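Attaching the record inline, Q. Sequence:
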Amino acid sequence: MASTPQSFANHTRWQPPLHFFVLPVMLINVIWAIVVFVKAPDRNSGWLIVVSLALLVLVFFVRLNPLKAQDRLIRLEEKLRYQQLLSPALCQQAVALSPNQIIALRFAGDDELEELVTAVLAGRLTRNKEIKSAIKNWRADTFRV
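Structure, as predicted:
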């Protein structure tokens, strides 16, 4: 991804060990535990289901918690960026942006940020996908979790 400029089409970040190994293994483990319990229901096979579900939930929290921390940092960075680039009136209105809208707008280049923030606040762009698709000069974010 480093050699290709980041864009809407390629900005999704996949972590192959997590997305294509750990998650499928944990899901298969839950399914296997259920199969074992159905074939031979007892305390051990029932406990295997509980442990398998706990591991699956743990994997999701291991992924989601850093993403939440990252989103808080993005909101702070963008608030500072808005103060530098937007008019004071628009900067005050930007308080009404949802966290998801702020996170989507982080990819907008400095030259088009004001136009996009205005469009989002006016309700012309509402969903993350719409906001990201409207960006002409993509500002890469390669330090994501």
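The longest helix spans residues 43-85. The mean pLDDT is 92.

More tomorrow.
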